[in-house]
Write a structure and sequence with these properties.
GO terms for molecular function: DNA binding; serine-type endopeptidase activity. Strands 1, 2, 3, 4, 5, 6, 7, 8, 9 and 10 form a 10-stranded mixed beta sheet that branches. Helices cover 27% and strands 28% of the residues. The radius of gyration is 19 Å and the shape is globular. The protein has helices spanning 11-21, 26-33, 37-44, 52-62, 66-71, 78-90, 133-138; strands at 101-113, 118-119, 127-132, 146-152, 165-169, 180-185, 188-197, 200-204, 213-216, 223-231.
């Protein structure tokens, strides 16, 4: 679910201006936030809007309030500003008691690369996020098996975009030809389309600028299948 805020046309400008004020490069800020450089660039050029949770994280990193990034206003206290973000999102987010939604694990802090592999060296504790129960039921999916991840990179474009949220069914670990999977290959996390061959598998990017990754049977011993992608901006 993407949350739209009022008066956000210049949010990217404010992120860039505050970053430059503290002498931080775009690369440095992206690293601190655990983002790809291209995602931050899209935000700073106002081509894409960050989510509410990221606005709070960006504000904390830059030493400003979330409300300032959202509106440019500086005449309310930091606590009021944080509350302001909550008020603006409360009508869009599902209520805890809403039976139409269920919780799944939120793994968006894990870097999964639609490119050359995202490394994750730290142990991460995960929160939960909510998705529509009706959608899960219609696909015969169980919430306990599903998790939300964030795509980093453009190798799966246009099927999956940089910064796109995807839902992964982690009970589906048998590789199927033509399906998209999240995989861990020697510590590097990928999201790729799988082609099964008599000799192993090929991890295929949708973007022709990226070469396929070929793994023979012996190399597959180091491959961990996290799960199958079942939803992005569309169902799979």
């Amino acid at each position: 679910m993407k949350i739209k805020f009022k008066n956000t046309s210049l949010i990217g400008n404010r992120i860039r201006e505050e970053r430059e004020k503290i002498g931080q490069s775009r690369n440095e800020l992206a690293d601190k936030l655990g983002l790809s450089l291209s995602t931050l660039q899209l935000w700073e050029t106002n081509e894409r809007e960050p989510q509410a949770s990221m606005i709070i994280a960006i504000a904390k990193t830059l030493g400003v309030s979330p409300n300032y990034l959202l509106t440019g206003e500086t005449d309310i206290t930091a606590n009021e500003k944080a509350n302001d973000v909550s008020h603006q999102t409360s009508n869009s987010l599902p209520n805890d008691s809403d039976e139409n939604f269920v919780e799944i694990e939120d793994c968006r802090d894990v870097r999964i690369s639609a490119g050359n592999g995202g490394l994750n060296d730290e142990y991460l504790e995960f929160n939960t996020t909510k998705v529509e129960k009706r959608w899960l039921d219609s696909r015969y999916l169980k919430a306990k098996h599903c998790a939300m991840y964030l795509v980093s990179g453009d190798s799966m474009y246009p099927t999956l975009k940089d910064g796109e949220e995807i839902i992964v069914d982690r009970s589906k670990t048998d590789l199927k030809d033509g399906k998209i999977f999240v995989l861990n290959n020697e510590g590097a996390m990928y999201v790729k389309k799988v082609q099964v061959t008599p000799y192993g598998i090929i991890l295929i990017s949708q973007n022709p600028e990226y070469s396929p990754i070929k793994l023979d049977a012996s190399e597959m011993d180091n491959l961990i299948v996290i799960g199958q992608v079942v939803r992005g901006y569309r169902d799979f």
